[in-house]
Design brief:
single chain, six-stranded mixed sheet, 14 helices, Gyrase A, domain 2, three-stranded antiparallel sheet, Rossmann fold, Four Helix Bundle (Hemerythrin (Met), subunit A)
């Protein structure tokens, strides 16, 4: 119900004119009776509204996330959908928005509910035989049960082997620039970011700590990181910068390993040791590069941060790697570290349920596995097991 009206202060003065919308429970975001006030947005008007509302008995400002929490408590959304809403609000790229919408609309919840339902089916089967101790479990039933548990482990294993693409899509692909001092790492950061984000100096060791630039590349979020030059040093601060650079290299999704074109094809050992399948070899100062007697690898990128030569080609290659990274598999089902840890916990319980043990212990392992998966969406109810037992096994008939 919508009503255009005047809003007045406790003294009767008109604060503003706007629209009042009434949503009767349960047809609201929270599932409760809700009134929305659509007002003009000036600071003076908003302040008067807050002063007037705060003067009314029983009213207080909402806590952070309180409306979403009430929606969850009232069954309007589960935990994953609530997290999807938070991700949608924070989304900065089309890909982030798409993933958040999938989660908010319940697509990921359906996946986890289906997994949990299959675990509960296994549990219900064993629970039925516990209630009838005189009946021996047929070997065919045990074989079928083990096969189903193994299948569930494989499904969860595939989800866990996603190279953390869901988390990367939320937080950004890590692109780390590495190399010896004075090879042009900070200049490359500025060239790729299209702005002066890092201080550039001819003096070695200028960059002591990591400098991060958040970007959108090919529609995906990316974090471009400039690091300290890799070298032996007696300076404690610079040494810590080198240690952090090496640590960041280990977790990088894409490493841009930079070499000095003036010395090419000579490579400093510390940088060369970082070249692997996740690395792009980038030779800077290609205007100083002497090709005589040198065999250039086809995958090496040659650039000049001074003239801009090769920067667009390098950016294109980085974007292509990001696209390949996200499109090489089906859409990720794990978007947060919380989901990943609970899935690992669940599969551990499934593994333990396969061991030779009394039925009661097997049931407990399966119950814990179902609970772990249920925590992802916030659905943990023993009644689910009872419903399946009564419906499928006719207990109490």
């Amino acid at each position: 119900m919508a009503h255009y009206t005047s809003f007045r202060s406790p003294t009767g003065d008109i604060i503003d004119r706007g629209i009042a919308l009434y949503f009767a429970a349960p047809h609201s975001f929270t599932g409760e009776d809700v009134i929305e006030l659509h007002i003009h947005g000036s600071m003076a008007v908003i302040k008067e509204y807050f002063d007037a509302l705060s003067a009314m008995d029983g009213l207080r400002p909402a806590e952070p996330g309180e409306f979403s929490r009430r929606a969850f408590i009232n069954g309007k959304m589960d935990l994953m959908e609530a997290e999807g809403l938070a991700d949608l609000i924070d989304a900065e790229t089309p890909a982030q928005k798409k993933q958040a919408m999938r989660q908010m609309q319940g697509e990921l919840s359906e996946y986890y509910d289906h997994l949990r339902g299959r675990v509960i089916q296994c549990l219900a089967l064993l629970e039925a035989y516990i209630d009838f101790p005189d009946e021996e479990i047929p070997e065919a039933v045990l074989s079928e049960l083990s096969g189903e548990i193994n299948t569930l482990q494989s499904i969860i294993g595939e989800a866990l082997a996603d190279r953390q693409r869901g988390e990367r899509l939320r937080n950004g692909v890590n692109i780390v620039i590495l190399g010896a001092p004075n090879v042009g790492k900070s200049s490359l950061l500025n060239a790729l970011a299209r702005r002066d984000a890092a201080i550039v100096s001819s003096r070695a060791g200028t960059t002591r700590d990591m400098i991060e630039v958040h970007m959108e590349l090919a529609g995906y979020p990316a974090i471009l990181v400039d690091t300290a030059g890799l070298r032996e040093t007696s300076d404690d601060i610079e040494e810590e910068g080198v240690r952090r650079a090496m640590a960041r290299a280990e977790s990088a999704d894409i490493k841009l390993v930079l070499f000095d074109g003036g010395e090419w094809p000579k490579r400093d050992p510390a940088s060369a040791a970082l070249v692997d399948e996740h690395a792009l070899v980038v030779v800077n100062k290609c205007d100083l590069f002497n090709p005589v007697g040198c065999e250039a690898a086809a995958q090496d990128m040659y650039i000049s941060t001074k003239t801009g030569q090769g920067i667009d080609a390098l950016l294109t290659e980085i974007e292509q790697r990001i696209i390949t990274y996200f499109s090489s598999h089906s859409a990720p089902f794990i978007t947060r570290h919380r989901h990943r840890m609970l899935l690992k916990e669940g599969t551990n319980y499934l593994e333990r349920s396969l061991k030779n043990a009394p039925l009661e212990l097997k049931c407990e392992e399966l119950r814990q596995a179902a609970n772990a998966i249920g925590k992802i969406t916030g659905k943990i109810q023993v009644d689910d097991v009872l419903d399946i037992i009564f419906r499928q096994f006719c207990i109490g008939k």
